[in-house]
Every structure is written in C-alpha cells, then in structure tokens.
Write a structure and sequence with these properties.
Length: 434
C-alpha cells in the first residue's frame, strides 16, 4: 500500500516537499523553500516560504529518510528549519550536501548528512527492504537526480524533482536513459513528474546553446568596440556561471563575480563537478569591497566583465545598484548588460523589472535579454519519460491545474485517464493507492 503526502510544491511552485508512505514507512523527497517569496523580504508572503507541516507532523515517527533530488533552494532550502522535526538521515549527492552545509546552519541538526553516489541503490537501515537510488539527470544545478524508491512489494516510486533531458550539458553527465529504462522494466508504480513547463511543446533546449548565445554577444562586443560588460544570472546556476566565466577569459577580460555565488562555487569545487582557474577571477560579496572593485572597473571598463546577481531587478541586489548609479561603475551607451535569465512571473518581481528596464533605457546602454534556456522538462521530455518508465500512476507536480495541462494531454495520448491513473493533487492532500 502506498500513500502520497502532497505536502508542498505539488499544486504550487517552490517549497518542494512530497512524502511517500510504503506500508507505514515514509520517505520524504525534498524539503525546499519558496525562494521568490523569501527573496522579497517584507514584500513577500511569509506563509508561503516554508512547507506547511501542520497535518503531516503527526506522521513524523514513520519517517525513515529525507532524500534530496537537487541542490536548488526550492528543493533544499527548508532543511535547517524543518529537518529536526524528523529523526531521519538526509541523503543527497556530494554537491547537494556540500552546498547545504555552506548555505544553511546545519550545526544544530540531529539528522545525519550522507552522500549518495548516483545510479547505485542504497539499502535503508531499519526499514522493511526499502532502498533509494539517485538517477542522474540534467537541470540548472550540478548533480541533479530523480529519486527512485525501490520497494519489496510495490515496485519503484520515481520522483523526478526538477529535470530536463539535455544531451549536451555544459557541465556533468548526460541523463541516464539506460537506468530509467531498467527501472521501467522493474515496474514503476508511481511517477511524480515535474510539470512546470509541460505546456511548452518544443523540445527543451540544451544548456550548451546558451553558451553559444553568450559567445555571440562577446563577438559583437569586439566588432562594435564595447566598453563595459555586465552579465547577470541566478546565483544557483553553476553551469551557466562556468560557461560565462570561460567566455570572459577567452575574451581576455578580467572576471569579477559579485554577489552570493561563492558558496555555490566552493561546493561545486569540493564535489569535483566544476573547476575554475581562480587566478583570473575575483569573487566578492562584501558590500564595501564591491564598491572598491567597481571603482577600479570604471577606470578602464574594457578590461573587465562584471558578473552579478539581481537578474529580476530586485532593489538591494548588485545589478540594481549598478544601474541606478549607487556604485562607482557608471553605465552609458558604450556599455552592455546581458540577462542570462528569464523573467519570473510574479507581480512584485515584474514591477522591479519594469523599473529596472526603464532606467536602462534612460542610460541608453545596450540590453541583451533572453540568454537563457529552461531547466525544466517540456512536453516532449515528459512523453519520453513516460514511454521509458511506463508508470502505473502519474502525479504531476510543481504547478496549478493550468500548468499541468501538458502532462494530462501527454498522459491521455498514452491511455492514462485523469481520476483513474493520473491524479491532480493539491498541497496538503493525501492520496492512497491500493
């Protein structure tokens, strides 16, 4: 018997946390936070930042493990706040655990933090034959995994986390299609699948394409004799950061990385997934030192590429300070800003971006947008996954009913029926499968 506890991030976006109960033993998959609401500070909705455990806490004694699908804050962001409620070890890849240690205070956790090697089932102690396996896939962060829970009597429960099928990743391994096919042959009883981009009918583009798009902007820079270059992206995107740094060094410019990137870089280096020649790069997050660095950049903009956070235009972030003249770096028509990011559909963030764009237009500097590809599976990827794994039951996650329409459509093509073997669950609900 399987029960699915749709705690958070099932009918909403962010704060991912789903628990699977197999004969009174529970495995929690992910424990994230809503990064958007958290970043907004006083402007955010504090009730949406962390998963709501009000109805689930009574099940705490049944929890045998907390397994993390990726190092993205939407999957690990609540660990230091919530994990102590469960007397269970926390499992993840080396990068995921290393980043957790560097970005959260885990010193008071009673939970053991344990590395799992990808593509190797790990038997859980004190369970009735349960094991977990991290199957490597691709996403916006290194060492992303689908979580396979192997049971004795109920087949495999496959929890995708956030994923896409990128056959030309800029960093790390290609998705392990062979393992997914093997799991399909073993028998997948439940597939909880990332539905965030399921309505996109196009094949998910490879991360390597973004590198080529950014390369084109550097070529254009040389042609039109551009002075300053500012590139902004999400701090979590180590793969993208590596590509941009490589291209900056190729262009013979010094690289200055400003913001909260350092923790992610250090975790990536310690996990052996990304290597940087740090002799040619300056990392800085201290406000006073950033000011000094940007004073130097202003003296000869052509020598530098400035990489910074604040791609959504948030006040207080470095990009906002640069654009609004709060630093020594003053932008004008001979400079360019490259947005290696997408606009997040959130009312407050949209307001921030409009304000930022208005100011950029006033400065008359060039603005390059859309240097980005999604980290989430589109309809084509989801269909491929369903064909490979042939699950008995499908549970779309990460979005409202409209977001999940693509999964429903693909399911119907493959003879799944909503309400029979494809279920649209709400956060806080429990679905029992027999």
């Amino acid at each position: 018997m399987i029960k699915i506890h749709a705690i958070s991030g099932v009918s909403s976006i962010g704060a991912n946390m789903v628990a699977y109960e197999i004969n009174s033993e529970i495995i929690i998959c992910d424990m994230g936070w809503n990064e958007i609401e958290a970043s907004l500070g006083e402007n955010g909705d504090k009730t949406k930042i962390y998963p709501n455990l009000e109805t689930f806490e009574k099940e705490a004694t049944k929890v045998k493990a907390i397994v993390l699908s990726s190092a993205d804050p939407t999957h690990i962001g609540s660990i230091s706040t919530l994990a102590n409620k469960f007397n269970a070890p926390i499992y993840g890849t080396k990068y995921t655990i290393e980043l957790l240690k560097k970005t959260q205070d885990v010193s008071k956790l009673k939970n053991k933090l344990m590395y799992l090697k990808q593509n190797n089932p790990f038997s859980l102690l004190d369970t009735k034959g349960l094991s977990v396996e991290l199957v490597n896939v691709t996403y916006s962060v290194p060492q992303a995994s689908m979580i396979a829970i192997h049971t004795k009597e109920d087949g495999v429960i496959l929890h995708t986390g956030s994923f896409k099928f990128d056959n030309r990743p800029a960093v790390g391994m290609k998705p392990n299609f062979k393992k997914l096919q093997e799991i399909g042959k073993q028998g997948v009883s439940v597939l909880s699948v990332d539905a965030l981009k399921s309505n996109d009918v196009h094949k998910t583009m490879s991360e390597i394409l973004v590198k080529e798009m950014v390369r084109d902007t550097f070529i254009e820079t040389d042609i039109v004799d551009t002075n300053g270059i500012v590139i902004t992206l999400a701090v979590t995107h180590m793969t993208r950061l590596k590509s941009i740094i490589d291209l900056s060094i190729e262009s013979r410019r010094k690289v200055i990385v400003l913001g909260d990137f350092k923790s992610y870089l250090d975790a990536a280096k310690e996990a052996g997934v990304v290597e940087f020649d740090t002799k040619q790069i300056t990392f800085e997050s201290d406000t006073s030192k950033i000011k000094t660095l940007l004073d130097e950049v202003q003296k000869d903009k052509k020598k530098y590429v400035v990489i910074c956070d604040g791609s959504q235009g948030e006040p207080g972030k470095i990009l906002h300070d640069i654009v609004f003249g709060n630093t020594g770096l003053k932008l004008d028509k001979d400079d360019k800003i490259v947005f290696s990011s997408s606009d997040i559909p959130h009312q407050k963030l949209s307001e921030f971006r409009r304000t930022l764009d208005t100011k950029i237009n006033e400065l008359k500097c060039k603005s390059f947008k859309g240097m980005h590809v999604s980290g989430h599976a589109t309809k084509a990827d989801i269909k491929d996954l369903l064909i490979m794994t042939k699950p008995k039951v499908i549970i779309p996650t990460q979005g409202d009913l409209r977001t999940k329409e693509g999964v429903v459509e693909v399911g119907e093509e493959l003879n799944y029926e909503e309400g029979e073997n494809l279920f649209l669950l709400n956060d806080g609900s429990v679905k029992e499968l027999k």
